[in-house]
Amino acid sequence: MSVIIVESPNKIKKIREITGSKVYATVGHFADMPKNSMGLDMETYEPEFIINPEKQDNVDKIIAACEGETVYIASDADREGYAIGMLLYQRIKDAADQCWRLEIREITEKGIAEAMNTAVRWEETNYKFYDSFLGRRVADRLAGYILSPLASSSLKGKFSVGRVQSPAVRLVVDREREIRNFKPTPYFTISTKLSHESKTFTAQFSGYLDDTKSFKTKEEAEAAISDASLTKYATVESVEKKVVNRGPKAPFTTVDMQAAASISLSIAPEKSMQLAQGLFEAGLITYHRTDSVRLSDEFLAEAAEFVRSNFGGEHIPEKPKKHSSNSQAEAHEAIRPTHLHPLDEIDSKIKTADLTADHAKLYRLIFKRAVASMMSDATADATSYQFDIGGLPFKASGSVPKFPGWTALYIEESEDEKEAEQSLPDLAQGDLCDKQSIDVESKMTKAPGRFTEASLVKQLEKMEIGRPSTYASIIGRIKSAGYVSIEKKKLVANSTGEQLIDFLNNDGHSWIIDYTTTANMEEYLDKVADEIDGATWQAFAKSTHEKMGFFIPIAREARENKAPSEKQIAMAQSIAEKKRIRLPDSALESGFEMSKWLEKNMNKPTEPVGKCKCGGDVKEWDKNFQCSGCKATIWKEFLGKKITKTQAINLLAGKTITLSGLKSKAGKEFDAKAKLDGGKIELEFGKK
Q1: Which residues are CB-contacts of 298 (< 8 A; sequence separation ≥ 6)?
Q2: How far from chain centre, in Å, is Cα 464?
Q3: How far is CA 616 from the centre of its chain?
Q4: How far is it, in rounded angstroms, from Cα 201 to Cα 433?
Q5: Sign of dihedral through CA atoms 513, 514, 515, 517?
Q6: Among 89, 287, 410, 471, which one carries the catalytic annotation?
Q7: What is the DSSP pairing of strand 50-51 with strand 70-73?
Q8: What is the pLDDT of residues 359-413, one digit of tens each?
Q9: Cα–Cα distance between 357 and 675 in angstroms, integer?
Q10: CA-CA distance, 159 to 172, in Å (whole number)?
Q11: pLDDT digits (tens, 9 = 90+) for 541-597
Q12: Domain ranges of the chain
C-alpha cells in the first residue's frame, strides 16, 4: 500500500476514501529556521532548519510509516509547498523505497487520478524551485533579524520589517499623506436638461478648450453659455447608434478571487483564502493558488451543457472564449468548481461538507464567475446625440440592454462609482428638443481614495511586489502589527506605520521599500527557479545582505540572557502552584527558558468545542474561547458577566444572543442583544 503525504489534516479523510492509501499530514511547515537565533552561516548563508518540537512526534510517525513504501509527497503545488515537500524528502528518502512528487489540483477521483498519472520521481523534480525558496527565506530572515531590531531600537517599540510587507505599508502611508496634503480646487461644468415628447434627459457641454473638460471660474462658464441661455430649443446635429458588446471577465485567479470576495462579499483577503482552502479540501473547487485563467476542455464542455440547460443555447458563443493572463504555468487552471450542479444545490453541498455560510457565499461566487467566463457577450444598443444650443455643442449618451449574455448569471461589482446609463428618446438629425434648463455646476477636485483591501491586493499584483499566494497574509500581517487599520472598509495608515516608513527612508534602508527593487527581487527568484542567467539563491542572499551593509545581527541572539518579566514570573508561579510542579531556576533566570516553560505548561485545549462562522474550530482556553482559523476571540468575562461556552460558540458562529446581568461602569445592571462584529462584541440595548 502506498503512502500519501499532504500538508493539511483536513485532506486526509477524503484522499484516503478515494485512494485507499495511508495518508498523513505535515500540518503545514513542520520545519523552519530557529526562532531564537539567526540560524544562518553568515559566510555561506546556508540556513539551518529544525523541526518544530510540537510536530516532532508527527514527523517521526510519518518517517516510520514511509519505511520501505512507495511515497507520494503531495504538499501544495506552489513554491512554499514544494519546499515543505523537499524538507520532508530529505528526511524520508533513506527510509522509503520510492518518493514521488504528486500535485493534486482538485480533490476528486478524476483530479487524483490525473495527478497520479503525471507524478514524477522526486529526484527528477526541479530542485531549483527549492533554491528559489531558500533565497526567499534567507532574505526574509536577514531583513527580519537585522532591520527589525534596528527599527525597534530606534523607534523605541516593537517594529517588524519585511521585504514585501514593508513596501505594502509604504503604499498605504504614501496614499494617506497624498490625501492629507491634497488641496481641493474648484472647477465648473455645464449641463442642460432637455425634453422630447415628455421624456427628459441630460446633455453635457462638449466645447471645453482643454483636457480638463471644465472651466476654472464660474464667470468663465456663465460667459460661455450666454448665447445658449437665450435659446429655447436644442437641435439634433448628429446621431450615432451602435451595438456594444461587453465580454465576460476571466475565471478567478488567486488575486481576482481575493479582490472580488472583498468587494462583493466584504470578506477580507486572508479570510477568503481560508475559505477557499476549506472548499478545496472538501473537493468542491480546484486549487486556489494560481495565476492562470485557463479552463480545461472537459470543464468547458460541462459548462456549455449547464448554460444550455439553464439559459438556452444562445448564451453559448459560436467560438469558445479565450482569456489570457501573464501566467506561464498554463498547465494549471483557474479557480473553478470541480463539478457543476444546479445552483440551488450549493447550500446542501456546503452542508454535506460541514462548511459554513461564508463558504457557500464564496463557492457561489467562484461557481458563477467560472461558468459566466465562457458565456456569450452581453450586448446593448448605445446611442449618442450631438446637439447645437445657441451655437454651442452638447452631447447626450445612453444605452439600452439588448441581450444579457453572461450577465444573466453573474453581475460584476466594482469599487468605482459609475453613473447609471440614462434612457434617451428616439431622435433623428434635425429634430428639436425643448431646453428645460441650463446650469453651471460647481465642483471640487477630489483627493485620491484610500486603498481597500481589494485595491491594495490588485496594486501589489500590478507592481509585481510579492506573490499572489502571499498577499492575503501580507495584508493580515500589516493589520495585526498595527501599521494600518480598517475604517469604513478603507485601509488607513496608523502613526506606527508612518514612523516605520520614515525610519526606513531616513536611516539608509530605503531600498527595502523601493517598489522597483522589490519587484526585481521577485524576478530574480524566478530566474533562480528557472535556471536563467546563472542566478543562484546564494547570490540573492548576499546581495540582500550587502544592501544592509553586511551587518551582523546581535540583538535577537541576546534574548536568552534577558530576565523574564514580573508578569511571566507571576503567571509561572501560579501555574506551578496549581499543578504542584517545580518551577526550574533556569526559567527564573532566562526569558527564553521562561517562555518555553510557559508554552509547555499552560493549559491547552484538546478537542474543539464548536465551529466559527469562518469554518475554523473553536477551542476553549483558560481565559477565552478562540477560533483556530480567523483568531476571533471571546473572553470568558464581559462587562461583569461570565460568558458560557454555549454563548461563546453562538457568538463565534455569527448568531445574535441575549446577555443578561451586564454591568455598566456605574455598576447598574442591564440586558442587551449581542453579536460579534469586527472581532468585538457589539450590543443592542434592551430593557432590564
Answers
A1: none
A2: 15
A3: 17
A4: 10
A5: negative
A6: 287
A7: unpaired
A8: 999 999 999 999 999 999 999 999 999 999 999 999 999 988 899 999 999 987 7
A9: 16
A10: 17
A11: 999 999 988 887 654 444 445 677 777 788 888 888 877 888 888 788 777 777 777
A12: 3-125, 134-181+452-547, 186-247+378-444, 254-372, 568-601, 610-685
Q: Which three cell numbers stand for residue 580?
A: 504542584
Q: What percent of the chain is helix, strand and coil (3-state, nearest 5)? A: 40, 20, 35
Mean pLDDT of 406-422: 80
| Listed residue (442, 441, 440, 448) closest to 186, CA to CA | 442
Q: How far apart are CA 370 and CA 307, in angstroms?
A: 12
Q: Is pLDDT of 415 > 80?
A: no
* Rounded Cα distance, 536 and 552, in Å: 22
Q: Is 287 one of the catalytic residues?
A: yes
Query: In 3-state terms, what secondary structure has residue 264?
Result: helix
Q: Which fold has domain 186-247+378-444?
A: Topoisomerase I; domain 3 (2.70.20)
| pLDDT of res. 557 | 42
The model's pLDDT over 51-106, given as tens digits with 9 standing for 90+, comes to 988 899 999 999 999 999 999 999 988 889 999 999 999 999 999 999 999 999 99
Q: Domain 254-372, what fold?
A: Topoisomerase I; domain 4 (1.10.290)
Three cell numbers, residue 86: 523537499
Task: List phi, psi (to 5°) of 379.
Answer: -125, 150
Q: Cβ(343)–Cβ(269) under 8 Å?
A: no
Nearest to 489 by CA among 261, 212, 233, 328: 261
**Residue 130 backbone dihedrals phi, psi, to 5 degrees:** -70, -40
> Which residue type occupies 190?
I
Distance CA 172, CA 170 (A): 5
Nearest C-alpha neighbor of 500 from the set 178, 156, 35: 156
Closest CA relative to residue 81, chosen from 19, 6, 182: 6
Specify the residue for cell string 479523510.
Answer: 13
Virtual torsion, Cα 162, 163, 169, 171, nearest 10 deg: 180
Q: In degrees rounded to 5, what are phi and psi of residue 658?
A: -105, 130
As a CATH number, domain 3-125 is 3.40.50.140
Record: fold of 134-181+452-547: Topoisomerase I; domain 2 (1.10.460)
Question: Which residue from 10, 629, 608, 613 is spatially nearest to 282, judged by alpha carbons?
Answer: 10
Residue 215 β-bridge partners: 188
Closest of 376, 387, 48 to residue 195, by C-alpha: 387
DSSP string across 443-486: EE--PPPPPPHHHHHHHHHHTT-S-GGGHHHHHHHHHHTTSEEE
Contact 453/268 with Cβ under 8 angstroms? yes
pLDDT for 302-339, tens place per residue? Answer: 999 999 999 999 999 998 888 876 555 455 799 999 99
What three-state secondary structure class fits 181? coil
Q: Are strands 3-6 and 22-25 parallel, antiparallel or unpaired?
A: parallel
Q: Which residues of 626-641 are buried (b: 16+ CB within 10 A; e: fewer)?
A: bbebbebbbebebbeb
- Per-residue b or e along 144-162, where b marks 16 or more CB atoms closer than 10 Å to that residue's CB: bbbbbbbbbeeeeeebbbb
Question: What pairing do the DSSP bridges indicate for beta strands 3-6 and 70-73?
Answer: parallel
Dihedrals phi, psi of 290, to nearest 5 degrees: -155, 150
The arithmetic mean of pLDDT across residues 620-644, rounded, is 81
The 3-state secondary structure of 648-675, one letter per residue: HHHHHCCCCEEEEEEECCCCCEEEEEEE
235 C-beta neighbours (distance < 10 Å), count? 15
User: Strand pairing of 22-25 and 31-32?
Assistant: unpaired
Q: Which three cell numbers stand for residue 64?
A: 516510520
Work out the burial of residue 95: count CB atoms within 10 Å of its CB; fewer than 13 is exposed, 13-18 middle, 19 or more buried: middle
Average pLDDT of the chain to the nearest whole number: 90
